[in-house]
Write a structure and sequence with these properties.
Blueprint lengths: L5 H12 L5 H8 L3 H13 L3 E7 L9 E7 L4 H9 L4 E7 L4 E6 L4 H14 L3 E12 L12 H5 L15 H12 L12 H14 L2 E7 L8 E9 L4 H10 L3 E7 L5 E7 L2 H12 L5 E14 L19
Antiparallel strand pairs: 1-6, 2-4, 2-5, 3-4, 3-10, 5-8, 7-9, 7-10, 8-9
Helix pairs in contact: 2-3
Length: 323
């Protein structure tokens, strides 16, 4: 695992705040040279410690996101996860504890594509034992504390304006820009359009509307965190929003959302080790009076986070036909 120092951690936090911040601005905030920032970014990216990717806020385009669980025999978990990761409409593909379950999020462009995957392609395999899917009704804002390193004053210099989350009609050039940024969120403006100024305006427009979401994918192990887990909670309906906000505010939480289904709150937490995860479950979650049940599954392998591409060097098997 690539080691990181204070400059690396400052760069990672800076990119988390604004993944397209110019290296010159980040260098000024960190008090180092622009060449140092560029060199560190290149090293961390090549080592697979971080990636910058763009994704589409499907809610603003009328799409519904789904959280999916696939139970299967251990021999097909890796190839099924690999096949799911290669789909452009999936993100956050994980193989869970025991290697017999896959968790992923789906944001299909239309109901026919969603139904074909969930009711035809996945159940077709004799080694897929069970498939469940629940709609994500709304997410809660999270900021995993493990990524923080800058002071509040430094962070204020980098944080972009919040999006307006307004409906936006996309054209062919918008889709081309979104596809390019899904592969590399720091693709130069000169490669995104007929002119740098036009591309800059287009990206700004997409970000301002909230349609384009730029994320920093970081391997938590590089920051000293080795215990990730997916949680499914059953919460008293009247307290669901308050509980979702509380869980999202936990420093260990990297993702939290309200869903349909028997469990109605899903979350991902990142802890330093198994002991830290135990304390989180027994003290933080265990202390929430309105949480009736909690199901926990440690993440064995992250096959895909956001963006179009699977996580590099994931050691995946061959694609399962038809997925």
């Amino acid at each position: 695992m690539e080691s990181v120092d204070d400059v690396d951690r400052g760069l990672i936090h800076a990119l988390h705040l604004d993944v397209r911040a110019p290296f010159s601005v980040i260098a000024d905030v960190l008090g180092v040279s622009e060449n140092t920032v560029a060199r560190r970014y290149k090293r961390l990216r090549q080592a697979g410690v971080l990636r910058v990717v763009g994704s589409v806020n499907g809610f603003l385009l009328g799409r519904m996101s789904w959280t999916i669980r696939v139970r299967c025999t251990p021999d097909v978990a890796a190839p099924i996860a690999s096949a799911l990761a290669r789909r452009p409409d999936t993100f956050w593909v994980h193989i869970l504890s025991g290697g017999t379950e896959i968790s992923c999020n789906l944001q299909a462009a239309d109901t026919a594509t969603r139904d074909t995957l969930l009711m035809d392609k996945l159940p077709r395999s004799t080694r897929v034992l069970d498939v469940t899917a629940h709609a994500i009704l709304g997410g809660a804002a999270t900021e995993w504390a493990g990524i923080r390193h800058l002071t509040r004053a430094q962070a204020r210099r980098l944080a972009p304006e919040p999006p307006t989350n307004e409906p936006l009609r996309l054209d062919a050039e918008d889709h081309a820009v979104l596809a390019a940024l899904a592969k590399d969120g720091r693709t130069p403006y000169t490669a995104l359009g007929p002119s740098e100024s036009a591309a800059r305006r287009r990206v700004a427009r997409l970000r301002r509307a909230g349609v384009l979401v730029l994320d920093l994918d970081v391997r938590p192990e590089a920051l000293g965190h080795h215990a990730e887990a997916r949680l499914w909670l059953t919460v008293r309906p009247a307290a669901l929003k308050a509980t979702a906000d509380t869980v999202a505010a936990h420093p260990e939480t990297s993702f939290a959302a309200v869903t349909t289904g028997r469990t109605n709150l899903v979350a991902t937490v990142v802890c330093r080790d198994a002991g830290d995860l135990y304390r989180y479950l027994t003290e933080r979650v265990g202390g929430l009076d309105d949480v009736h049940t909690v199901e926990t599954a440690p993440l064995m392998r992250t096959v895909k986070r956001s963006g179009l591409e699977p996580v590099p060097h994931a050691g995946l098997g061959q694609q399962v036909p038809g997925v």
